[in-house]
Each structure stands twice: as structure tokens, then as C-alpha cells.
Batch of 2 targets.
Target 1
Amino acid sequence: MNRKLRMGMVGGGKDAFIGAVHRIAANMDGLIELAAGALSINPEIAKESGKMLFLPEDRTYLTYEEMIKKESELPADKRIDFVTIVTPNFAHFAPAMMALDHGFHVVIEKPITFTLEEAKQLKQKVEETGLILALTHTYSGYPMVKQARAMVQGGELGKIRKVWVEYPQGWLSKLSEREGNAQAAWRTDPKKSGKSGCMGDIGTHAAHLAEYITGNKITHLCADLNVMVAGRALDDDGNVLLKFDNGASGVLMASQVAAGEENALKIRVYGEKGGLEWQQHEPNTLLVKWLEAPTQILRAGAGYTDRLSSYATHNCRTPGGHPEGYLEAFGNIYRNFALTLGARIDGTQPTKEMLDFPTVEDGIRGMAFIDNVVASSTSDVKWTAYQA
Ligand SMILES: NC(=O)c1ccc[n+]([C@@H]2O[C@H](COP(=O)([O-])OP(=O)(O)OC[C@H]3O[C@@H](n4cnc5c(N)ncnc54)[C@H](O)[C@@H]3O)[C@@H](O)[C@H]2O)c1
């Protein structure tokens, strides 16, 4: 690549949370510049946000439709290369389809769409156009998550038997949606979030992590979703039993009413020979527990690079002892997307490490997960009345 890739952002204005994280992540390696934006549903905020980010006035758009149309009319050496979509769930599909229809690659937030049907249509569009779509399942961007995946899939633990993944947060322990918290408001509104709240918002991350690390697919599940805070329309808590296509069993827990918890995502995976444990509050560490040997502690950025997989070292930025955190994991998704797109522009072949970012296929898995947990939860068949 002899230039930076040009990004157009939908959502992510000064009224938003994750858009700023995307900009930091996209900037991290100097491969991408923000060139245009339709940064808010509110035109005033869209304009102010464009100014704050030093976007030229003529590329600060008031709607995504205007951005995509006008950008597609610019000369090839000026127009954006891709559209990043960081709006609430109900506003993912339309800009994504329009971007692909106008020849733009897409980076999109999870859950990929509002419905499974939309996700399938998006997949068809990606296939028809041959364009690249990256989905920001952030946690798959951590170096030690990639190490875990490489070890499991390289057979080091033997056949996988058990997966435990838990994702407790506490920030929805009160009715914050009625107290002016914009992020809580749309996440708890079925018209904006989708048919699930907590499971759609963070359960999808947990399910993705389980499938990403093991390489196994969930085939059956039994779900119990709960509304713990009275007056809320969507689940804010849930437990799911899982079966995987290799016969492994699993437990997935996600909650946004685990009062006092921050973002305590943790996964444990056990095979015939040993197990792995990774948690996002301690992201540089991967515990490897052996049946017949002492537990090992593998660390990101350590000197023993020959012991770590190329996927882990490729996604590691700093020497040992410097936490490779949320922003870096996000940055890894952007960098791999950008290197893959850059290779395409240059007519070269991206490496397998560059190609390791979530795509529309992962988006479909996430939407199917939401459909299946909601269907299972609304069925009473699984419950046995407790006799004593
Ligand atoms: N990957 C992660 O770890 C992660 C973390 C947080 C949020 N998310 C996802 O990111 C998305 C956004 O979440 P958030 O918390 O930043 O929401 P938010 O409410 O903070 O921000 C949403 C932004 O989208 C804008 N917007 C809404 N409709 C629009 C439209 N039609 N055109 C242009 N802008 C529009 C709003 O004005 C706002 O700027 C959601 O899908 C969420 O699930 C992912």
C-alpha cells in the first residue's frame, strides 16, 4: 500500500460510545484515516462531531445515504474505501447493504443486524459483490485468545470436552434507561436492540469466543433468559447449556445485573489432556492447566516467541508487562482488515494471520444464537418442577 485506507463512519458522533473506540483502533497502525462521516442521527450533533474531528465540511454528511451516494461519485483517489457502521443494532443492515451496493467494503458492529434474515441477506450481498466485511467481535482480537485458539486447534489439549464461558456485567442493575443513559435506552428497547437484550449485546460475544477458540460449532442449546429489573422489556440476565458439534458440553452465562461487576468476560476450555483459562480483566495471561504436569502461565509479549503461535505474536504490539488491552484488541481487528484490504488493492496474497478477523459468517452465527436462545427460553419443556 502506498497510501492510507479511507474510512467513512456511520454513527459514532459525540453522542456515542463505541465510535470513538473504532477511531482509536483504526488509527493505531497508521493504515487508516477518517475521511468522511455521517456521525449522528441528530444533524446538529453530526455537524459538531465532524468539526471536532477536523473533517472537511463537504465530507461531514447528515445522513448515511448522502455519505454513501456522494462518496461513490468522488474520483477513485479521493473517495472512501470502506464504511464503518457503529449505530445501534436496528440501524446496521440498511447502511451495510447500501455501502456494499456502492462498492464499499464494510466494518460493522455486532450483533451484525436486527434479524437473522437480514444477516443472511447481507451474506448474500457480500458474496455477490466480493467485498470484504469485518465484524468487530473485539475479544477475538486479543493475542492470548489467539494463542488459546491455536493451542486447541493444534490438538495440544486433545479432544475438547467442556467449555465454560461467563460474561457478567453490572451496569444495568438499575433502570438506567429511564435516567437518561442513552446506551441503556436503546439496548433495552426491543424496537432498537432486537429480540434479546443481554444475550444479544454480550451473550453473542461469549458464544463467538467459545466457537472461535474451540473451532467447534454450537448445535443444541437450552436457555433460561430473565428480566431481573422490573419494568424492563428485554432480558438482562441468562444462562445457557450448550452442546457442540464434536460432542463437547458447555455452559454460557451472561448478565448485565451482576451488581458490581465491570466487564468480567472469562472462558475456560477443557480437553482430554488439560485446560485453558483466559479472562479479559487480565488479558496478557493464558493459564494452561495440564492433567499430568504443573499449570503453565503463558504471557503476551514474552521473550519465548517460539513457544507462542504466529497468530499470537502477529497480534502483539508491546514487550512483556504492557497490557494488550481492549483498544489494542480492537486495533488488531482493524489492522488485519486493513492489511487484507491493502493486499487486495496491491494484488498480493494476505497471510493467514491477516485473514484472521470475524466476518459475515460469524455475524450469522451470532444472530442464530439470539434466535435460538430466545426460542428455547420461551419454551417451558425443559423445566422439571422440584419435588421434595
Ligand atoms: N464490539 C464491542 O465491544 C461493542 C461495544 C459497545 C457497543 N457495541 C455495538 O456498537 C453499536 C453502537 O453502540 P454504542 O453503545 O456506541 O451506541 P450509542 O448509542 O452510544 O451510539 C450510537 C450512535 O449511532 C448514531 N446513529 C443512530 N442511528 C443513526 C443513523 N441512522 N445514522 C447515523 N448515525 C446514527 C447515534 O446518533 C449515535 O452517534 C451497537 O451495535 C453495539 O452493540 C459493540
Target 2
Amino acid sequence: MMSWEESTKQKMLHLQLPTDPRWVDIAEMNIKDILVDHAYCEQKAASSCISLIINFYDFEEVTEVLIPVVAEEWGHFERVIEHLNKRKFALGKPRKDEYVIKLLDFVKKGGSRQQQLTEHLLMNALIEARSCERFKLLSQQIKDDELKKFYYELMISEAGHYVNFIELARKIYDKEKVNLRWQEWLTYEAEIIKNLEIRGDRMH
Ligand SMILES: [Fe+2]
Ligand SMILES: [Fe+2]
């Protein structure tokens, strides 16, 4: 059996561009902003799964797989809030999420419901993969022991979600087509990461 580190590393290899190592240094210096942005990432993750459940209620597998994911993301949200409270940081307003806005541009409109659902599942899978990569960096490099452990746990959890989304897409739609489209998404995402400004107040 592969260890978690090994299997996560393998999965992360799918990302075509690793995060710029400067990001984690800047993030650590701006941990308050990172926690705030992270809280909203968890909220958006939960909300987006709820939307998928509602919009694709006719696909049984969607509710089956995504209801537990909603619960986990909401649990993550609660835990980030605890970390904020403990440090007496306020949640504050959500930030404009340029990464997600750019990903949304790539979602193909039209096609069958299976195709539409697949687009959203692949987009979510990518966000999970990138988040997982960033949690890994945080867990390896920041000095705060408590946060280190927290990010390590999240890295594992988000890797699980990544698998949930990809496998769900492969069940819903033609596996070969899903794999081809996944490659296109990966290439597009690498381009986004290359062009996004590195900032210490964003998870992405
Ligand atoms: Fe999460
Ligand atoms: Fe997740």
C-alpha cells in the first residue's frame, strides 16, 4: 500500500505547474489574510457542492458522493473560523477570487447535461488539486505547529475530494472524453497560475 504522502504526490503530479515557492513565504507573513481567504474557500467549496446537488438532482451519484463532501467542507470552514477566533482575527469580507473567475471562463457552455456536469466536476477537481498542493507547502514550511498539523490534515482531505470529483465525472460521462478534457483543464490552469500575481492574501 502506498503511503498518503506517496499517493498525494502522484496525484499532484497532474498539475502542470508547481506553485512558486515564494508564495508560501509571503503567505506565512500574512497568515491572517490567508486564514480569511481560506475560510471563504471552504465556504465556496461547500456552496458549490450544494449547487451541484440541486442543479443535478437527477443524477443519483451526485447526491451520493457530494452530500458527504458538503459536510466535510463545512467542517473545514468551522475549523478555519476557530483558528481565526483563537488568534482574535476577524473574518472580514470575502475577496475577489480571480483564480476561480478565470477557471469559470473555461467552462464550456451547452452540450448535454452530462457534459455540463462534467465541466463543473473537472473545475472543482482542479481547485481541490491546487488547494491540496498549497496545503502541502504550508504544512511543510510554516513554523506554527498547530497550523502545520491543520494544513496537513486538509491536504489529505482535499486530495480525497479531488478523487471524488474526477471519479464522479468518469462515472457520469464517457471516460475517454473526461480524460481528454481533463488534460485541457490542466493546461489551462497552469496558464492561469503562470499569469496570476503571487500574493500573500490569497490561497490561490
Ligand atoms: Fe476543504
Ligand atoms: Fe475540498
